[in-house]
Write a structure and sequence with these properties.
Two copies of one chain form a homodimer. By secondary structure, chain A is mainly α. Chain A has two domains: 1-63, Orthogonal Bundle (Arc Repressor Mutant, subunit A), CATH 1.10.10; 65-205, Tetracycline Repressor, domain 2, CATH 1.10.357. Chain A contains nine helices and no strands. The N and C termini of chain A lie far apart (63 Å). The interface between A and B is large, with 53 and 55 residues. The structure holds a DNA duplex (33 and 33 nucleotides).
Chain lengths: 209, 209
Amino acid sequence: MTTGKPPRHRPGTAVLPKGRVRMEAILDAATALLIDEGYAQLSTRKIAARAGIRPGHLQYYYPAKQDIVRGLLERYLERASLAFEREAEATPAAERRVELFLDAVLRDQREGDRARFFWELWALAARDDAIAGAMQAFYRAYWRRLVGVLLGVRPALGRPRAERRAALLIATLEGLTLFRSRGAGRELPLPFLERELRELAGALASDAG
Amino acid sequence: MTTGKPPRHRPGTAVLPKGRVRMEAILDAATALLIDEGYAQLSTRKIAARAGIRPGHLQYYYPAKQDIVRGLLERYLERASLAFEREAEATPAAERRVELFLDAVLRDQREGDRARFFWELWALAARDDAIAGAMQAFYRAYWRRLVGVLLGVRPALGRPRAERRAALLIATLEGLTLFRSRGAGRELPLPFLERELRELAGALASDAG
DNA sequence: TGTACATCAGTGAACGCGCGTTCACTGATGTAC
DNA sequence: TGTACATCAGTGAACGCGCGTTCACTGATGTAC
């Protein structure tokens, strides 16, 4: 089976340190460009330039453009899912968990680039099954973590109701990114919205309804 | 001032019927392509082909590609804003207004293409000020309409609180589009989510909190 | 430590393609008298 | 109704460009003995 293939790095992950560093640099460059200019303006030649290599060398690590995009997405979402896990370990008193979870999410969302990055991803997921799958895995982790928090605070909710309310809360949080920075109405100051959001979260964590 | 410019249709809107029909056809074609393939794959040549004209003739009506995108967006959002107005005229008993408003929004969102279209727009708005402005105007109309509904049902809310809650509800509704079709988790059946959403809307329309 | 060899990393030129737009031109339609 | 003219609508060829990817090749690094 050892055919005389063109020199290309196949197994997906570089074995040697230099290769691993290069692959990271490529994903870093592509991520920055995706956020700065959007997927429509993203080109392999720009990625190569930003990563400090020649255009033809990209294919040595990533045979096609879509492999780069999938790669950067998987890396990002993996890290984010890990953050959920890590946060789950250091649990404070149950009563404060919802609040702290919201804090973490809002802090992350406030980090400028997150919204732009996700807007691109939502659009991409509609056209690419691999990206849709990765996004789905991410939101599943996000959602499971929140279900756990809600049930920890208010066990009487019951799992089915907690699952639905967690989904609603995530939808609200994601939807709120539209009202940040650009693209939607900005006449409502965010601090007010976030205060209201916390009240909403409190209501969703109650066993009423 | 009457210089010998190249033959180009300048004023933005065609005067004669034939020209108006052509412009509509161009926007129709571009909208369909944007939904089917996404902005990254959108090209003037594809638009021309789908509209049944030669590539060079596009520039007669729309000097540049971005004019087409802005044109289709403005047309769509104008129609949607009008729909809000029309709906506001036929008001039933106050108590049912929130419910009916939700019905209308959810029905619209269920219409397959709406989500894909908006995902593209959110991403585009982050790069193009004209698109961001149009989106902002649309969400403002949407939001004002909902504030009116909430205040009509529960005047005791007061305008500031009604404004914040309307924004939250819109964020939730937009965020829920992520859980439809593709791109996010689909393990939660939508009917359940929508039932929960109605309860949430009811809570937001109460004067508690 | 030295040598031989295999694998890994990187280069530079070139490919064919679809893109957005321009331009000189022709044909169709409307308007004035 | 007929004619002259202006404006509107549409064509087809061509432009220069950046794109994604291939390919033959060279240089660098690791491995076995």
